[in-house]
Amino acid sequence: MKRDNIVREETVGDAVARYLADIGVQTVFGVISIHNMPILDAIARQGRIRFIPARGEAGAMNMADAYGRVAGHLGVVITSTGTAAGNAAGAQVEALTAGTPLLHITSQVDRAFMDRDRGAIHDVPRQAEMLKAISKTFLRMWEPRGAIPTLSAAVSAALSAPTGPVSLEIPVDIQRLPTTVSTPEPLPVVQTPRASDEAIAALAERVKLARRPMLWLGGGARGARKAAHLLMDKGFGAVTSTNGRAVVDERHPATLGAFNMNAEAEAIYAQCDLLLVVGSRLRGNETRDNKLPLPPIVQIDAEATQGGRNYAVESFIHGDAGNTLSRLAEALPETLNPDADFLHAIAVARARSEGQLRDLLGPYRVVADVLQERVAEGAHPWVRDVTISNSTFGNRYVQIDRPGLGVHALGGGIGQGIAMGIGAGVVPGAARAVVLVGDGGAQLGIAELITAVEEGANLVYVLMNDAAYGVIRNIQDAQYDGRHHYSALKTPDFATLCAATDMPHRRVADVGDFAATLDTALAEDGPVLIEVDMKAIGPFAQAFAGPPAGAAGKTA
Ligand SMILES: Cc1ncc(C[n+]2csc(CCOP(=O)(O)OP(=O)(O)O)c2C)c(N)n1
Q1: Cα 96 to Cα 78: distance, rounded to the nearest angstrom
Q2: What is the pLDDT of residues 368-419, one digit of tens each?
Q3: Residue 348: HSE in the Cβ half-sphere, 13 Å Cα cutoff
Q4: How far is the CA of 499 from the centre of ligand 1 (A)?
Q5: CB 168 within 8 A of CB 140
Q6: How far is the CA of 440 from the centre of ligand 1 (A)?
Q7: Contact, 164 vs 173, CB < 8 A?
């Protein structure tokens, strides 16, 4: 019998495609397979979503991750079951580390074969366990009738603070079956934890006692820009983690930016009498494995279990960053009574930090300065792989205009930049992405260069080619008596490689040519690759040998 509130019947594949478009998803990344064709065929037939076929699932995941970060809403990736979902796993670790709001729709073998190790093609008997380990939340669609509620729950989980990647398995037999669509449909609900009024009042009293308060803003504070600025207007100084960059304007004189761990920063922390740590893990590679001396801390986080995890804190407030900081700002007087010398000292420390860094770069200070001038000014997404140029100047000297424009491998995994650049380079309305990669990392992404060309991605790759795993080589020089095992690999001829993929290629062998080459590339359409020939240009003034021993390769 037909009930009144049932409006139509469609396959789950069609319902998934329609629902994603209905909630505003414009772009989806993935690789087609027999196990996801009911959904992808529906996406194509309905014509409401742009599907970007990556060459591999790792690339597709990195693209969706970067897209989610830059667009500031849900990134969506669709993979097949088994090896395909496994291929995406490493890249999903990065999305998990960064807390990207991301939906990974993957598949399963027919329900009759699922979880039973019966040898069905593409089967992974414990796929759920794999996905649980790399997801904020794991969900499985069990029945066609629960299709949209389950999908809606997955989207809610991805978007709710603390945001993160959600994996949803949709067995392929379910994708083909009809489901009834009722009205109204469940819409995703975004939940934000709200700190108690008592906690805000107590925090306001604590802040009033401080003369030199500072904010330490992490990636969890990306949505708290306005409130953080209100507090700075009242006299707070600021510093950010790399993932929290530009939560406060990086050009503001009272912020250290992401110069958060050098001697200048330490001298500031020694004077500071209250540090509000907001949405930050105080990660090991940004706090010398938590040994960096920090001022008395009040910690604010949307994830209840983060309290005091890495540093002892005076108090912990479980709440959304933006909501908590704006209520704090309301509870405080117009201006606190800040120590003007302290805010001045922050400006000086910041300027000194930039100067000291520039001195270490040698000829590459020209490259850093040019990017410094262009990236924030043009509101370009600034996407970076793990390469020496990023660990030195990319992560802190080249400024970004707003937090979502900073995309880098927070978990330290090389080889994600080429694909992340594509995700950033297809966000509707975004400026041309500028993507910094090393030759070693780029080699993992070579297949996705073809995707960049095919999709006309709006980006410029800046490939720093030192024909080596440079940072590994430097660590070998510093710690392994210069034995360069496995770090001097064959490097492809990128000009020939680009020619084979129709990617425009420009070589810079003199840093003096970098500005004009970049400006021309920024004025073009579609992807362009600028190869900076570091063998021709020469070494940095000081070799970068990674963070302190014990964290090699996991860059600052
Ligand atoms: C997925 C992954 N594998 C291995 C490493 C170890 N690692 C860190 S940096 C690096 C070399 C990167 O070389 P390249 O992209 O050429 O940049 P460069 O160091 O030369 O600037 C390697 C292999 C890593 N961080 N991530």
Answers
A1: 17
A2: 999 999 999 999 999 999 999 999 999 999 999 999 999 999 999 999 999 9
A3: 8
A4: 25
A5: yes
A6: 6
A7: no
